[in-house]
Amino acid sequence: MHNGTKAEKIVKHDIALIFTSQSLEQSVNVIESLVSMHQQYNTNTRILVFYDDIRVVNLLAILGISVELVSTRTPLYLLQEKIENLLESQESGRIKVQKTRELSPAESDVIFNLLRGDSLLHIAAKRGTHPKTIFSQKYSALKKLRLRNMSTIFVASK
What we know:
The protein is 54% helix and 12% strand. The chain is of the alpha/beta class. The protein has a three-stranded parallel sheet with strand order 1-2-4, with helices on both faces. Helix 2 (24-40) runs parallel beside helix 3 (54-62), helix 5 (105-115) crosses helix 7 and helix 6 (120-127) packs across helix 7. The relative contact order is 0.14.
């Protein structure tokens, strides 16, 4: 995963404010960092994700990921309340992934590479594995996410 180092930087803090972008590719990278952080670290870091694009919310929902979300259009006084609540709460703001939708690191890697536009053959070549392995990981991920094919994710991200 490309975002292991980003996740490592995030977990060193009590609270992280993460801003997504209107660029879907950059938002996919942010979401991949969140997934990587959840998979690699047992962290108490509380996260507040600012989004200005509903596609971020849609992708998080498909992946079964719950985080504190705040629209960039939120008035400042409400934002201040949200941050204060996050600081006071012991549970609020932690990444939660539905257990039935939790992907393995390999499955996540395949899904995020596909979201970036890589083909199964390209992913296999990058990882030095057989394309059937990548296909199996994609199939397993889609099954866990309760999707028939990748088009559902792509439609949500348009």
